[in-house]
Design goal:
38 residues, mainly alpha, 24% helix, flat
């Protein structure tokens, strides 16, 4: 079934509710270089 591909996501919802300007301030697991264990 075709769709528009709209998905708000938890991070975007928290960003909208809290009024933060940057999505990096609300993500629970920051994606910073050198901090991802593989």
């Amino acid at each position: 079934a075709p769709h528009a591909g709209f998905g708000l996501g938890l991070e975007r919802l928290v960003q909208f509710i809290s009024g933060m300007e940057n999505i990096r301030d609300v993500i629970p697991f920051p994606r910073t270089p050198g901090h991802a264990r593989f």
